[in-house]
Amino acid sequence: MQHRLGGWLPNDQNVLEKWLAKVIAYVEHPSRINREFHPVIKEFKDFIESDPVIYMGFHQMFEQIPDKPPYNDNPKGEGNPQVRNYMCMLRLFNHIITTAPEYEENDLVGFPINAILDWPMGTPAGLAMFCDPRVNEMFKKMFYSWSAFLTTSDSRYVLTDSANGWFGLQASIALPNFDTTFVCDPTAPYHGYVSWDDFFTRRFQEGVRPIILADNNDVVNNACESTIYRIQPNVKASDHFWIKGEPYNLRYMLNNDSSAELFVGGTIYQAFLSALSYHRWHSPVNGRIVRTEMVSGTYYAESPTMGFQYEVGDDGVPVPDPAGPNNSQAFITSTAARAIIYIQADNPAIGLMCFMAVGMAEVSTCEITVRTGQTVAKGDQLGMFHFGGSTHCLIFRPETKITFDPSLPTDSNIPLNSAIATVEPL
């Protein structure tokens, strides 16, 4: 299923529904349903209820969910969408922002808020609301509060060897050889990590991802531990990025910067990061940082061509295919929160290139760790995603005659720092 790319949501829809039903039952238990909202959730509620257009939109996004199976059923078969209204949504948000993700039910619900909003995202009202800058400002505030919790020692409660812990048996199967792959101290509590964020932005052990052909400027290396999403030549300055096929729109991707014109007719390489993988970005070339930019954007806007879809399950029964932002990956390069880093490569056949990190859903906190004028070598860190990973692009000018290795796998992670392309000399 497309929306399972990167493993951010379980492959088994039943696992996701079971998780969501459990959390709804928890927050709507009579002893908790009137629980006081966190200040940021109280602000979100007041925002929805104080604006008539927003109030209408947050009602319509639930009302517009198709009234037919499986969208009108929850796991108990009670004939209602699981999240029925914005108050249920807010109660779930209120719970989520004080918790850390567990490796639960032998799987990962890595996008818990994406899971809550799966159906509303596919509605016209949902698209309108999730594209509204004021709504996205509320999400941004909420994520800052959640991030504040995930960087505290209180968030380490999931970093244990319990059944749902990140060092338990099932998680260890999903993350084999963890102690020899990542920097940690397996003899210390929580493997030495000081917070959930510290665990999720973990580093590779020295030598685990060697820099292939480090001094060969004709070779472009992999900037992120990631799986190929698309390689697109002859990219246009402006295109209808919301239509089927999701063409790229350079002007919007680069935030209407004049430099977009330099890349018209060039090539975009896009790849996505796995939920269980490594979440830092590294330079694909030897060169110098020309400029960096952080762009605020949307969090839950998805391509309107996705809508409500069905796929046939293994048993031959149609099942819903929720089209979240992670199967709108080309679309969100023009709309989502993102970090842009321009690099002047030492190789004149490459010249100016661009690295773009794009946040998907709640995985939208990008941190740039390089500065303008800094010299970078292949493999040097450029920045990182917090709370996981997302998708990224390498953007090349039309003068750069780049050839990507045809043997690159398209269904699995390509190791960081491996060679992915060669450039024809001038």
Automatic annotation (TrEMBL):
One of its GO terms (molecular function) is phosphatidylserine decarboxylase activity. Pfam families: PS_Dcarbxylase, PSDC. GO terms for cellular component: mitochondrion. One of its GO terms (biological process) is phosphatidylethanolamine biosynthetic process. Residues 38-172 form the L-tryptophan decarboxylase PsiD-like domain. Keywords: Decarboxylase, Lyase. This is L-tryptophan decarboxylase PsiD-like domain-containing protein. It comes from Phlebiopsis gigantea (strain 11061_1 CR5-6) (White-rot fungus).
